Amino acid sequence: MVSRFLAVSISSKITGDRICSNGSLNIGGWSFGGTVAFEMAHILQAKNIQIDNLILFDTVTEYSTNTGSVVEKNEIEKFGFDGELQAMLSHNSQLSDRHKLSKIYRQNLVLVKATRRGVSTKKSENFSSDNSYGWDKYAKKIVVYEVFAEHNALFDKENVSSMAIILKKIF
Fold first, then answer.
1. Which of 32, 47, 59, 63 supports an S-S bond with 134, CB 3.0-4.6 Å?
2. Is 0.85 topped by the overall pTM?
């Protein structure tokens, strides 16, 4: 699986380059990157590295109540992306739909949800009905925070203060 491959690759750099000098880390990922962060947390914990916080920013699982998340070509074109980037975004969306997680995360998982849905995916109208986006199947305890923003604007300038408030609560 792509997310597992990426997680192994990134995790080896973290431990190999001694980035993790004090023995604990905070790991986060946005969208499909959240799935990679989830896998990384398992890999690093197996190497006896303490994960203080695993934070997933608007990341769904296959157990989410959402259906059919493949990004539509006309939705991507609205953002003015070139053909190569359009293909990558569509591919990432399909990967996310196919990725099946297998392990339970035994630590606390933090989910930051974008609650204002725009044109990012076909399943956007269903997101609000699943508070954990399906992560309750994979984590012992989940803390959910919400930001009134669209998925693609979660880290934009207008949402910095909301994100800062949430991050202060986490750390």
1. 63
2. no
